[in-house]
Write a structure and sequence with these properties.
- This protein is α/β, with parallel strands linked by helices and about 280 residues long.
- It has two domains: about 90 residues, Rossmann fold (3-Layer(aba) Sandwich), CATH 3.40.50.720; about 160 residues, Helix Hairpins.
- The chain contains six helices and five strands; from the N terminus they run βαβαβαβαβαα.
- A five-stranded parallel sheet has the order 3-2-1-4-5, with helices on both faces.
- Helix 1 links the parallel strand 1 and strand 2.
- Helix 1 packs parallel to helix 2 and helix 5 runs antiparallel to helix 6.
- The chain is rod-shaped, with a radius of gyration of 51 Å.
- The protein starts with a strand and ends with a helix.
- Keywords: Transducer.
- This is Methyl-accepting chemotaxis protein.
- Belongs to the methyl-accepting chemotaxis (MCP) protein family.
Length: about 280
Amino acid sequence: MRIGIIGAGVGGTSILRILNELNTVDVLWITDINQQAEGIKLAKKNGINTGDDFLKFLHSVPVDCIIEATGVEKVKKLLIENVPENTTVIDGQAANLLMEIVSGRDNLIRELKNMAFKLEQDLTHLNQGILDVGKALEEIKNGTYDLSQMGERLVEESYKTTEAFNRTQEILGFIKSISKQSKILGINSAIEAARAGELGRGFGVVAEEIRTMADSSEKSVEEIQQVILDIQNNMDGVQKGINIASDVAHKQAEATQRASLLLKKLSSISREIKEFAEELVSL
């Protein structure tokens, strides 16, 4: 459809702008007594005929429809008197309705653009936040993995320590056995020294020293065994704590991994919305 527009003010400009977006409509000319009007500038920019007198275009550039956008009664009367046959005229009232529709559409698009621009900015901040959180989660995951590995190594070392304690207990048991044998030897030596009378007095002193040393050794062994037992009990508690910490670290690593995957999905959705917002802004 070929269109001519009379009036290049705010209303005529809005009508021209929306008609230019329609593939089935071809605006051939627009006129206004003010050649600096916004609609005239827009028409020139789009290669549309312009002028200050619509009468010059009525027959030289025929159209299917003329939109009278001035709302001036004198202009309308002049148009009706000179309009070619089979050309439809949309008068001021109908043009005003059309301009209201166009204006409402323009306002809606403007609001959508503003909202889209704000949404785009918010999404930019959101994406940056997602990246920062993702980096933090990655660091936590790596730290948790290291902690878990260290816990496992500590558990292995605690097992080795327990084995060493067990071997120490065996050695102490052997020393205690020797101590008992030495004590018995000391008692037997004392008996023999008593039988020997004056001749066995020196031997009796040695026998007494052996028995005293055996008592002292046995007491020391018992004390050492108690200390080792206390350490072993403490190691058991430490080992349980390490196992618990290692288990917590594993669970935390898994939770961090799930959170990281969720953030990636959220980032993907955010990018899609941002692209949509950019399309709205470019309308």
